[in-house]
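Hi Y.,

Following your request, here is the sequence exactly as I used it, all 256 residues.
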Amino acid sequence: MTLEACTETLREHDPGRFGAVLTAAPEHRPALVTLYALNLEIARAPFQSAEPMLAEMRLQWWIDRLAEMGDGTAPPLHDVLTPLWDAWGTRAGDLAALAEARRRDCERQAFSSPAQVVSYVETTAGELMWQAASALGVPVEAREAVADQALGVGLAAWLRALPQLQPMGLGLADAQAEHAQELAGIGREALRRAARGRRAVPKSVAAALYPGPRVVSFLAEIAEGKVNCFSQQIEITPFQRRASLAWLALTGRWWR
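Below is the corresponding structure, written out as tokens. Let me know if you'd prefer a different format.
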């Protein structure tokens, strides 16, 4: 797969991140496009088989290839790994952590507490956002702000997907409204901390920290009991997405 094909895949399956990539400097876009295309493949891998062992084997394939790239071995010709190697080189080895964090998905095991969800989001959304920000040159001093932004954004995305996750056994084992409200509250506070730490984050990193549309208001609606995210699917309209991306492009403001 060429970089252009990766870009088209991102446009189709992850339009929010696709739009955010377009606001990054041109020289940074290949790293972001290939990272996000890899993330789509890794996130999909555990669900390509209903048998946990087979699902984990598929995920392990990605872990092994990324580890080899980290050791300096170019991957075999591949739709995603070839352009990823061109953009990341041996740094692709660091991305194996993204796949390792998905092992739980192979087990089809529900979360027993909000704390487990937080830990999962930190290792999936958190690692993804940190790698994206690193590709754009974020300093180590900004790691806490990036982690807080990723936690808030990641929890919002997880709660938004809950109507699909719950029937698959990947939601909360005890589907109580107060658990969702607790997670929404944690997400809101994480976003507030990220906003307070924004001065440590260069403007050039904004594309990597883009939260997507209506994140703050969505978390607020859950925390206040206005949305039952176990059953209510809250869609993002094309207009909302365009308006949110236009705001990012015009202002460079990723915080809320």
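Residues 42 and 99 are 6 Å apart (CA to CA).

Thanks again,
Q.
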